[in-house]
Amino acid sequence: MKKTVLFLSVIIAFYSCDKIDPENFIDGEIIVQLEDVDRKILIEDFTGHKCQNCPEAAEEIHNIQNTFPNQVVAIAIHAGYFSVPNPPQAPYLTTDFRTEGGGEIHDFFGPQSYPKGMVNRSGYPSDVLSNYTDWANIVSSLTGSPAKVGIDISHTIKGDEITIDVSTQAKVSFAANHNVVVCITEDNIVDWQTVAGQGDVSNYEHNHVLRDVVGSTWGQEIDEISVGDETTNTFTCIIDPEWNLNNCNIIAYIYDTSNYEVIQVEEIHVE
Predict the structure, then answer these.
(1) Closest to 57 (Cα-Cα) out of 41, 70, 74, 40
(2) Residue 103 and residue 79 in contact, taking contact as beta carbons nearer than 8 Å
(3) In a 3-state reduction of DSSP, which class is residue 105?
(4) Structure letter (DSSP) for residue 70
(5) How does pLDDT run across 9-23, given as a tens digit for each residue?
(6) Where are the alpha helices (DSSP H) in the chain?
(7) Which residue, 51, 64, 61, is CA-closest to 112?
(8) What does pTM read for this prediction?
């Protein structure tokens, strides 16, 4: 009797689980499928603290992230003529938010007016740049599709150095023409900004500010990988004492080197 009860319990427990697709049975074995990972979207916002309309783009990013929670990652790249700081003796707009990597990205994609941005760098080369008023529609068209890869980010801090490991898990097989890039961004930076209708504002909150592209601007190559494979790339950078690590994030994105399109992005908080 006890054996019968035990057998029935096992059967009930088995069938109380989610239905298992018959295609997942091979010669009596259950084949566990890789967990689906949604594709996240990267917005790169070319901006500057002297650009009076750029705060509208920043607000649009905020709205998009609220509409698509945990699906959109943003980087505010201060580059171009609106990002040039005033001389140190000037009373305002003296902070230099520019970075070497940000400048290289800006010059490569070549925005001529601001605010402009890229959503997953889709449409390269002719239609890669878009107005902030179009970002929500582009994001909407890209969300919900399964990702080709999953990304896990881990980091350790020792002294003034941060070491970042980016693990890539393949959901589909793909060739070696993919690179992974790591960036540091910072939120909640209160500083000057020119705002349309308000002039020069001293207590503007800057978010998603690119602080560093770690290593090469164009990243490290990912080896050709098959479904289920995992590979790790390691990055190191020196922590700038001007950064507030409590407000910093690590962003890793993977892009196709043949067309620069971002296929997946992930973000974690530093501390």
Answers:
(1) 74
(2) yes
(3) helix
(4) T
(5) 333 333 333 333 444
(6) 2-15, 54-67, 100-109, 135-142
(7) 51
(8) 0.86
